[in-house]
Amino acid sequence: EGHGTGTSVGDPIEIGAIAKGLGRDGQIDQPLLVGSVKTAIGHTEAASGLASIIKVVMGLEKGLIPPNCNFARPSRKPDLTKWGIEVMCYHSCSNTACPANNAQIPTTLQQWPSKGNIRRASINNFGFGGANAHVVIEEYKPNLHPTSLSTNGILVNDKHSIRTNGVSNGHTPHIISSKPEPCQTGTNVNENSKRVFTHSLTNGHAIKPDTSMDFEVCNTNGNTTITTSRVFMVSAKDEEGCRQIVARLREHLVSSEPNEPDQLMKNLAFTLGSRRSKLPWVAAHFAGDLTSLRNALDSESFAPVRMSAKPRIGLVFTGQGAQW
Asked: What is the mean pLDDT of residues 34-62?
C-alpha cells in the first residue's frame, strides 16, 4: 500500500524503492501488488496513513485486494515488470506496449491469495516535513477450537470405521440410535453400528456408549483444553523496588481465589505488559495457570535483571516542516 499521491516525481521514487526492497526481480508469475487508497478517496493529508491502514485491515478481514481507481496506464519510469510489480487497475489495458500487460490486471476486486501462508501487507506514508512511516500488517488466524489433541471421548475401532474427527465444545451426550447418515465432518461410523458417539474430540464429559461394536475409550476424564502460557513482567527503577512489586503481587494472588482464574491471567498479563511503564529493572516469567504463576512468584524465577542501556535518540521528525 503506497503513499501514491500521483505526482510525476514522488511516485517513481517510491515505486523504485518498493521494487528494490520487495520486488521479485522479473518473477511475473508472482507479481508484487501495489495500490494506493488515494485513488479512491483522495489525499486526506494528516490522516492519509490511517486511511491506508483501514483499507489494508479491511482487505485482510475480507481476503480481498481492491484495485486502483481511474488507472489508465503505468508510467515508463520505472519499468514495473522488471521488478515483477503489478499495478492494480479497473480496466484491461489494450496497449500492447503497456508494461503492465506482462502481468494479470484485475478489473474488479480480486481474492487475496494466501497459499497456506499468512496474508501480509506493507504500508508507506510520508509526512510533509520528511517523516517516513512504514507499517507491516498481517492477518490474525485465531484458533477457533482450542481443544487438546488428546481425545475425551470414543474412537471407533479401525476394523469397522475410520476414526471420528469432529470437535464438540461442551457435554456430548448425543448418540446414534439407528444407522447413521452418510459420513460428514464430525460423524464417521460403521454402517453396522447401533449406538456410537459422533465425536472423537470432545471438550466436555464423555459418557460410555451402549454399543455392540468394538471401540476404544481414550482419556474419558472430563474436560481437556490447551493451556496457554503468558508472560508476566514487572519493572521498577531499582532492584529492590522490583522485588517489592513481586512480593506484593505474590501476596495478592495467594490471598485471592478468583471465580474466573483464566480471565484473571489474561487481564494481569495484559496490564503488566501493556499498561505499565518500562523502567530500568525488570522481573519476568511465563505461566500457564494461576498455580504455576504463584509457584514462580515463590521461587527465584522472578529474579530482577537490569535492562540494557537506554538507547540514544538522534533526530525526531514530527512530519510537519515548521515543527522539527
From this structure: 89
* Of 117, 115, 93, residue with least CA distance to 103: 93
Q: Which pLDDT belongs to residue 322?
A: 53
DSSP H helical segments within the chain, as ranges? Answer: 10-22, 38-41, 48-62, 239-255, 261-274, 290-298
> In which domain, by residue range, is 56 found?
10-138
Per DSSP, the residues of 81-148 read GGGTEEE--SS----TT-GGGGS---SS-EE---TTS--EEEEEEE-TTS-EEEEEEE-----S--B-
Among 180, 208, 225, identify where a domain stops. Answer: 225
| Amino acid occupying residue 160 | H
Look at residues 225, 250, 273 and tell me which one is the last residue of a structural domain: 225
- Give the helix/strand (H/E) hosting 32: strand 32-34
pLDDT tens for residues 188-223?
Answer: 444 444 444 444 444 444 444 444 443 333 444 444
Residues 23 and 125 in one domain: yes
* 199 and 115 housed in the same domain: no
Least confident of 11-20, 126-135, 194-203: 194-203
Taking the chain, what is the end-to-end CA distance rounded to the nearest angstrom? 27
> How many angstroms separate the CA atoms of 171 and 202, rounded?
8
- Asked if 217 contacts 182 with a C-beta cutoff of 8 angstroms, the reply is no
Under a CB-based contact definition with an 8 Å cutoff, are residues 85 and 18 in contact?
yes
The residue type found at 91 is H
Three cell numbers written together for 116: 497456506
Please name the residues in contact with 139: beta carbons below 8 A apart, sequence gap of 6 or more.
60, 61, 118, 119, 120
